Amino acid sequence: MALSAADLQKQLEGAPDPFPSLSEPSQRASGSGSNTAPLNTESEDLFPSLATPTTPRAPPPSWTGRVVKPVSAPVFTDSFSLTGIDPSANHSRDGKPKSLSDILKDVSAKFKVKVEVFSQRTSNQTTFTVTGASDSSVESAKKALTASLSPVISITVQTPASVVGSIVGPKGATLKRIREQTSTRIDIPPRDKLMVPGANGNELSRSPSPLPISPVSPGDDGDSLVTVTITGPASMAHEAQAMIQSIITEKTSRSSQKIKISPSHVYPFVLGRRVDFLRVANGADINLNRDDNAHEITVSGDREAVGKVIESIRSCAAFYEGDLTSVKISLPKRQHRLFTAQALEEILQKSKCSVVIPPSSEPSEEVHVWGKATNLGAGLQAVMERANSQHTHAIPVPGPTPRHVLTHIHRSGYGKTFDNSHPEVSIHFPEPSVAGPTTVDFSGEKAAVDAAQKELAAYIALLQGATREVQADYLIHNILNAKAKKQLNGYHASKNVLVYFPPESDAHSNILLVYDPLQKQSQKEKKAALAEVEKEILALVAGIGPLKTETVSVEKKWHHAVIGKNRSTLNALIGEGRALAIDVGGSGHEDIVVIRGSPEDVERATKEVLRIVEEAENDAIDSSHVVEFQIPQQYIARIVGAAGAGIQKYREQLDVKIDIEDLRDNGEQVVGKKKKTTPSNQSLLKITGRKQNAEEAKKRILAQVDKMADETTETLKIPRQYHSSIIGQQGKYIQRLQEKYGVKINIAKEGTNASPDEVQIRGGKKGVSQAKNEIQELVEYEKENNHTIVFNVSSRAVPRILGSKGAKIHEIMAETEAHIDVNDGNKDKTKDKDESATAPITIRGTKKAVAAAKAAVMAIANAVDDETSVVVHIEPKFHRTVIGGGGVGLKNLLARVGAPSDPKEQAGLVKFPQSGDEVVIRGERALVKKVQAELERVVAGLRERIVLGVVIPAEKHRMLIGHGGQPLMELEKKTGAEVQFPGSRSYNQVAPAENAAELEEADPKNVVKVVGPRAACEKAIAELLESVAKAPSREKRENNTQRNGSSSSVAKASVPFKHYHILRQTGNLLRDLRAVGVNFSQEGKPAHEDGAGTGRIDDEVEVDSHGVEWRLVGYGAGVESGSTELTLRARDAEGLESGQKIINDALAKADKITHVGYMTFPDRSAFPRIIGAKGAVINDLSVETDSEIIVPRDDTTVKIYGDEAAVARAKEAITRVAFGGRRNRNED
User: Fold this and answer.
1) I want to staple 1107 with a disulfide (CB 3.0 to 4.6 A). Which of 133, 810, 978, 1162 is the partner?
2) Structural domains in the chain plus CATH codes
């Protein structure tokens, strides 16, 4: 209902000023006169309170500042006013509109604030006072109330196109921040859609009239304007508008301008004054960018400073224009190419002169040198030096048709190939389409230029008389290529003729035929081939038929419809492979479209053009069609969508405009003979657009209303532990349910007011019922098959349960097929954890899987609970000795006390510090006690150790060490001391001897160090000296024994030739015999060992990707029959018996061997990795694969003995170690 100005004034009399002065110390209600009676704000009738009853008080004015009440606990209060609040736009879960009291209750509970409401009916204003314990809660509640109660409006802001990027921000960050802060929807059109003057972007407005839009100046650079639409609650929309306006104000304070420097010879001199231009800016933010091709300088930055710099550049250019003079010099065109941009810059720096070179397309050879009169001489000299810096030469392309030759050189790729084959020469081939001289320019060293010129001249000579043109209308070129492409391409293979069509953009009708110059034929044969191809092409052209031209009258205003966006409609009309050309508004006539091509294509295109124009005319009429209908007001909020998203979808999909009018205050009803105005619960929708689109939008909206009318909501109580099953992996299951039954499923989130077990299903009655049944079936299934238990373990056990990078827990889950979640609440706390702290473990799966997983976890947890740690103080000087080389000493110590042999279980049992003397032992209590006792025993012995020196002649050292070191080992075992001879690796690592003063005169080569307890050292020294003293008689006795040939400690043994490999010098057999004091001699040796010499040239040999050859043969194949006789000697019968047993065991093991594998490597580089430190790796491989592996010292073939399966395993293991990376030393 329209109101006159007088009526509107009467309604507003007595209303408070919505924009009071902020400078006045006290606020007063504004009215039309001073005689107006004061408003009784304490009247409960006029201002009923909707919040919790409190002591009545005067309401604060419309725009008051925040007041902080001085109370004992901090209390924050804020007041604000809203006009024309609309609580019914919010709906509860059952779809019913919320009342004001419902909204206040929700906000109070959510933000824990107290809200008081004061209504002013005369001005339709409502004032809210929000009180809370924190400033943030008050502010959040204020924003929530504003968003829930303000009417939804749309505001448009005219924005310069150059500022749109700043509003959006990097990756949309600025736009996202404005949207989140104001809870509004902000629509920014694509950059190519600029503002249409007078357009109204207020497509969704529930306000009687759009709010005024602040005008924005497009700026001095003629920046186009873009319409930015803001949709949301009124106050929020205004806030978003203010934020966007501030960005526009900030950005339009900057500008960017270009200035073209003319004439061009001034440009280089102006560039040299860059520092002066920046000085003119006087410290302002200014950027200078240059475009050398266009001779332009772009200045961007502070608007005022940009103007000053532009003026300074303009003045500078004017100065140089009047101050410079020039001199010209004529240089051959071929030398012009030597003056590159870098060369011109060097000439300017050297002579203070600029050089202007005419474009290559112009025939002029004059070069102009510009500068001050005093500098022109130096400039000319610099130009001549550059012109003569390289030898240049040009050859004209001969013949009556040089363009044909150049076309072939460019289109065949010969020019690029020729240029690449002469890198020392710069070669320029002119474009065939450019008018002017047809010469090829060369520059470089004279010899290289002459050679290149000679080669090119010979090639061009082959093209003389080998070209021909065929005339065919350019419109049919595409048809020829489409219909006869294979035939045209086949001419090169069948007739040595290349066919070149002109570029489509040139619209030329000549087709070039070139006889391949690389095919040496006579001129007669070339002409015959060209004539034959020309005849066939003309026949193809004749088969296409004549062309037709049609002129269609089309007004200029409809040309855009014929062309389409990015020429899309025009391209669709022309199509592919058709002889058709369409010129819209060409030939100097604006209101015509010229169509040329084949008759049928012209006729078709003409009809399409007329149809498009007719549709465009109809669209202009149809777009004004209006459809009006009413829907219940309770569905409006759902139709509009969040921040207008629903209406926006219809606008984008159907190109319609939708306006919504609230009829609640406009309903009229006839009662008797009078019209009575009654409230209405309907809203009027007005859709404007093309008839079909408007009707379709109405149909969709009514269908949406019908769907909402059928909606029902079902709430299920489902334990939270089953919610993840309803959601499914990445939400796939709940999404499938929603799509299958057409429902919306909401699952309560933690931290909300809803019950944590609540699952809400909303949709059509049938769909809700079906989805409910399926969810209940799923929950029953999960109860049967998805058992869950939760128990606590010590937080100290969590790292052990998880393992390195989760390896252990994944191993348990894989073995038990249960899912385990570990929640260590102490992991982010300080190092001083509470030893009694626990961590919950959640296990899900079947009953059997859950029980097995719990048992595995508890086994680890119990082991950790039983652990203890002990600190043993050991001097750092003993650490290396205790650990031993490669950790052998520590491993042996742990083995002696019965510690686990698995390196992974040993890890962390004993930890030596990097510095200090605290050695930590952590593990099971009983094992820790044993390790501690053994460690203290070993260290006690180390503390008692001394070093004594004894002089023994160097020639006796070998005798004392003995064969294989056996006598020395027996001595050390007997006395408990360690003997170090000069020259050994450990000799210099031992401390100096206590009696070093007594040994000063002795030769260092004769000083033997004895290490150990004093008594053990003295006993060992006595034994050594006694052995030296008895050495002659012992040698004599051994000689007598050998001379007599009889001894009670001598025996014989026989080794078959096929087992001869067990007697190798580095084998285990010799080492074991020496360990028991047995030596042997042998008689007889096979010609070939292990069939190694029986290989044939045709034997099958495999070679892998690493170049390793592999051959597998039967054990003993090719080895002659016979045996090696061994003579065993020992000191006593017991030693001899042990030696015989060792040989018999070795032979028994060798009898089980069935195959021998030979791995021949390209070189020996991989052998150190195969052997490992002190043979650790190869020994491990032999044990793991149950085979014997021999790595040679003098060749590249590794031998593997064992049964066939063991040999194959060993081969794979060796390949893995050799080429799969180095093993961890700790694992060795």
Assistant:
1) 1162
2) 76-150 (3.30.1340), 261-323 (no CATH), 465-545 (3.30.1370), 557-623 (3.30.1370), 626-663+681-709 (3.30.1370.10), 786-825+837-868 (3.30.1370.10), 870-1028 (3.30.1370.10), 1051-1084+1101-1220 (3.30.1370.10)
